[in-house]
Amino acid sequence: MHLSYYTIAELFGVSEVLLLVARRSKKSGTKNQADRSSLLLLWLVISATIAISAYTTIMGIGQLSRTNLVVDIGFAVAILGFIIRWMAILQLGKMFTVDVSISSDHQLKTDGLYRLVRHPSYLGLLLIIWSIAICEHNIVGYAVVIIPTFLALNYRINVEEKALIAEFGQQYIDYQKTTARLIPGVY
After folding, report:
1. Residues with Cβ < 8 Å from 81, sequence gap 6 or more?
2. FRET partner for 20 with CA separation of 20 to 30 A, picked from 3, 44, 93, 98?
3. φ and ψ at 126, to 5 degrees?
4. CATH number of domain containing 131
5. What is the pLDDT of residues 48-64, one digit of tens each?
6. Is the pLDDT higher at 11 or at 33?
7. Phi first, then psi: what are they for 91, rounded to 5°?
8. CB atoms < 10 A from the CB of 145, how many?
9. Number of structural domains, the chain?
């Protein structure tokens, strides 16, 4: 494997563990905690799919010809994903938590990256995860990583959007009508 594959995996793991430790919602000041185990599901799916994809790559199952260009593309996608994810987290500030919760002083964020997509931190997360599959350049790995991760993340987005509708009502429904979920103009 190329050095950038390990770099992506290590940076991703460290950054997400730091988020898990530092950005959990506090019980006090939380009006609505509606995670519904979506965080656990998401991390089980991500961990399992990356492990399965790595296994298929090591075993040569579905392996495509991996060139430096493919790995460089994967690395570029990862950098873009990290930039989008962390910009979204920084733009949300203290309202960002790793679990789905609404704080007592929560405000709907509709500017910055949130003007383009409703869930930019999840878009960044998807790009980071998908970049690992790109670096592995394995047809089985692509399917194993991309499809289950997208489905688990979509479940989490549905949970989060129900909580946001419960809190912000018509304001969030109107925002949904004008702003894409993950990919501007597509989804």
Report:
1. 123, 124, 125, 126, 127, 128, 129, 130, 131
2. 3
3. -60, -45
4. 1.20.120.1630
5. 998 898 899 889 898 88
6. 11
7. -65, -35
8. 27
9. 1
